[in-house]
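Justification of resources, computational component.

The compute hours requested in this renewal are based largely on the per-chain cost of generating structure records like the one below. Each record pairs the submitted sequence with a full structure-token output. That output is archived, and it is also reused by downstream analysis tasks.
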Amino acid sequence: MPNLSRNTVHADLVQHLDQELTRMARAQYETAEFNLLFSTPLTIERARLNAILTVYYGVNRRNCWAYVQARSPYDVKKIIWEHEKDELCFDSRGGADHQTLQFKEAKALGLTQEDVRNYALPPLIVSCFYAWLHIASTFPWLGVLTAFHALERRNSDKLIPGGGISRRWRDKLVNEAGVALNQLASTNVHVQADVDHADAVWEAIVPHITDEFAVRTALEGAAASYKIDAAYRAASALALRAV
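The structure output for this chain reads:
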């Protein structure tokens, strides 16, 4: 590309990565594992179990993002800090940190904190959590950042036709399990929050897409995370179907 400016090359690389990450995010909804989850009829008992799993999923996300922050350059650390303040401290969209909102939703479904804390996670769920931690602790930092950005990208209503997981699951909770929309303190917030989170972290990724190697590193992280994401959805579906 001898006649192209450095800025043009950078823009082309970023555009390619952006398009490929969006393609991968949309493809998640075509996998057998996602189809298994969303084809699982949702009863109130199954909704309660999913609320429990969601709390533990949130804990795993916080653990993984802590690794991302620790291993990223300073400019990225600052953006992740802002991202995690919503999760750990206070999100104005819901008036609380995200775990508080998850427990509030679980309570609305008929669960106590003891029900959540005393639940024994199924082996397949635990395996997925360990697999994500493996990515977080061993992949190159840019691959790690993109691996967990990818999970928010595939939950972004702006990018996913038909809505991301939170919107689709909210529809099942309302239409199948008969849960009132105003009881979904956590799910409602995540329908909005992951659009903003995906955008913010993408802006942190963009300056570091300097060559083809960076693109490959980012895509490898996303691809690995999406494999685990599919496995987690299948594991969740199996757990729900056992209820």
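The chain has one domain: 6-241. The mean pLDDT is 95.
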